[in-house]
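As noted in the main text, all predictions were made from sequence alone. Below is one such record, for Mitochondrial thiamine pyrophosphate carrier 1.
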Amino acid sequence: MRDAPRQPRGQRDPALCPTDEEAAVPRKTEGARNKQSLDYLWKSGVAGGMAGCVAKTLVAPLDRVKILFQAHNPHFVRYTGSWFGVAGAMKDIYHQDGVLGLYRGHSATVLRIFPYAAIKFLAYEQIRAAVIPNRQHETPFRRLISGSLAGVTSVFFTYPLEVIRVRLAFETKKDGRSTLTSICKRIYHEQPTLKPLATDYASGTAAAAATAVNAVAPRAGLINFYRGFSSTLLGMIPYAGMSFLTHDTMGDILRHPQLAKWTTLPKPENAPAGKAAPLRSWAELFAGGVAGIISQTASYPLEVIRRRMQVGGAVGDGHRLRISETAKIILRERGFRGFFVGLTIGYVKVAPMAAAAFYTYERTKTWLGI
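Prediction:
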């Protein structure tokens, strides 16, 4: 039996998408990138961090309004449910606090988003290389798992900064604005309030039960910076997973030979061996926008639950809410539609945000030569 014709040296099959070159080219092939090298790691992290900052800055005003809607802020309840309400809320914030009011909490956002995005994109590259070692393992499920694990990894290390950002954005008082330091102290010292037991219980039994729970339950400290963390982990699985899966799949489609002449650019001179040609700007933005919309739809109900849990110490009786308890409150207050409050803002926000993030990430990687 004759051997299959050997491929000329230096010639490789094109990768499916910018992060897929190891799926098409074995890791040890001459000229292929080493994703475990220090040079690749820091460059990938910087590219991811810049992508996150650019994307969040672009949509910061809409993000502020969405948080106010999701968290059921009493001063902005009348604005929910329509596009005119979104405009009215932004106008109200502008009249109260000026342009800077629309960016309330954005300093904490930038402080959080750079390490968050850096870890997420870097983790995705590393996890993907392990989960999809070659092209034969290239499946939608493996892409989904790679993205989900990358999202969980990043949120674990940066979640406290997210809680601080939400609390800053939630405040609407004209006077006595909280500083970053005061917010941190307040969150740290907040103590959960136990709900009263049923009235038909004997008072002695109720008191004994409350004392026992208070003795073992954390009352304050670092645990307060992880309000809503469980729902965040649950929401991150579909959000990050669908985001990376959709973006990579759209990259495959847009790089199809019948479309490539309209959607791709020539490879830059410093492009690593095996890397696919970059998408044109409109194509990269389109792929990122579609990824953002699909991932937002899949994870939005859990995002609403998470916001309500995060502000649990700022409204009501300070009771530390559980996922099921928060979901029941939302269902009782607004019905099933309550889980999608602010989704229209979410669509308008997430499409440009995801598009800007993926575009910045890919272009920064090209600029850095990875």
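Residues 38-70 form the longest helix (33 residues). Confidence is low (pLDDT under 50) at residues 10-31, 194-218. These features were considered when defining construct boundaries for the mutagenesis experiments described in Section 2.9.
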